[in-house]
Amino acid sequence: MTRIPACDTVQEGVRGGPAPEQDRRGTPRPRIHRWIRSLRGPGPWRRGLVTAAFALVLGLLLLLHRRITDRGGVGSLVETFLPWFGLGVPVLLVIALWRRSASATVALLLPVTAWLSLFGGLLGDRSRSGGDLTLVSHNVAAENTDPVGTARALAESGADVLALEEISEEARGTYEKELAKAYPHHTVQGTVGLWSKAPLSHTRPVDTEQDVGPLGDSKPAADKLVDNRALRTTVATDQGPLAVYVAHLGSVRVTSDGGFGTATRNRNAQALTRALAAERSDRVVLLGDLNGTMDDRAFGGLTAQLHSAHEEAGSGFGFSWPADFPVARIDQILVRGVEAKRAWVLPGTGSDHLPVGAAISW
Predict the structure, then answer these.
(1) Cross-strand pairs, 357
(2) What is the 3-state composition of the chain as percent helix, strand, coil, each rounded to the nearest 5?
(3) What per-residue confidence (pLDDT) applies to 213?
(4) CATH says 133-361 is which class?
(5) Which residues form the signal peptide (predicted)?
(6) Please, which residues have CB within 8 angstroms of residue 257's CB and are 6 or more apart in sequence?
(7) Hey, where are the domains in the chain?
């Protein structure tokens, strides 16, 4: 039987591997042509383009959140829950890996970098040893059904200065009675109060509805003091006088038209900002429920004058509301002229807020 010799092309394919691809004229195609053809198919850079787009939008939202319109309170709402937008990163990463999308994976670098630049500093423990004075602030909630237990828990915290917000007329006597032994000095102005182990002086309400002049200006009308939501006093500490403000700014609520009502809160914040700007003392502390986070644009005037004790000396995000599942830190301790050494969140009471504490040093 006569054996037919194989052609050179077949023999080359057998000896050296598969024969190179050829065009219609039989000419071998260069490798560059095969690479270009691969880009036309569903390759790793073309897969997951929608996921990549979402990643870029998320990154831009984190970077440019202050450019979001605040019409209807949208900007304030976004900034209140801004840290939680970081949860979009692992979700998008899982989708990118499942789709084997190189473009989406690379696009995720933008939101990761933006989130870390905003909140990366809050991930660790920033507390230090020391502290000359311990401060605690708590919105005790008007609907609190256990004011006795709340007062006793706060007294056991060991705070030198204790600020309470949203004190109801019915519960005021209970707090005064239960805290009297641990705190011989106290003042209550409307729905806010301050209890102190050291003497108090120069106490007055702060009108958060109108312009506030320097210390010593005329007080608000008597009929407005019942609903007063801020006060100013001086605590005579062993290290010298300390000006202390206690405030409960207006609530923010979802409105019937789908907006986020912040008008009252913002107006209160502006009045409080003016009061602090007129404060003559070098050492100032602001304690209270501000109904907003320090990322909220409404507090730009406050953060320009004071800084957060928790951001300086706390651990983690320090969320304080709602008590059952905290998602935002709206209870604040802000300082000026003193140094925050430690800041923490206390265990829950009968309130829908968690108490917050800080140790400060001269």
Answers:
(1) 136, 344
(2) 40, 25, 40
(3) 41
(4) alpha beta
(5) none
(6) 72
(7) 49-122, 133-361
